[in-house]
Specification:
Elements: E1 2-7, E2 10-13, E3 18-26, E4 33-39, E5 46-52, E6 57-59, E7 67-72, E8 77-82, E9 91-98, E10 103-105, E11 109-114
Parallel strand pairs: 2-11
Antiparallel strand pairs: 1-3, 3-8, 4-5, 4-9, 5-6, 7-8, 9-10, 9-11
């Protein structure tokens, strides 16, 4: 089993920055991808960024150049640095990890960007 706990969400003005953290515990040795998703009211949950065990990253177009995913393997924390935030980035952000047999999700953290 793997447990995830996000933190770092909050209210920020447009153009500002936030860093989300996801503390990972349990069978962390089995994880091979780490990702951040988000879900806005009335919309489906969507992928934001992903990083694999080799450090290769993948970003969706609407965050490229603004968001950075990273992970600290020694501390079992994954991060999402979000810069130049826009009102349309307002959503609940979830961390997700993939292990050998399933995906695990955090409970989500609210990010609200005011105009």
């Amino acid at each position: 089993q793997v447990q995830l706990r996000e933190s770092g969400g909050g209210l920020v003005q447009a153009g500002g920055s936030l860093r989300l953290s996801c503390l990972i515990s349990g069978r962390t040795f089995s994880i091979y991808t780490w990702a951040w998703y988000r879900q806005s009211p009335g919309k489906q949950r969507e992928l934001v960024a992903q990083i694999d065990s080799t450090g290769r990253t993948n970003y969706v177009d609407f965050v490229k150049g603004r968001f950075t995913i990273s992970k600290d393997d020694a501390r079992n924390i994954q991060y999402l640095q979000m810069n130049t935030l826009k009102p349309e980035d307002t959503a609940v952000y979830y961390c997700r990890v993939s292990s050998s047999n399933r995906n695990y999700w955090g409970q989500g953290t609210q990010v609200t960007v005011s105009s």
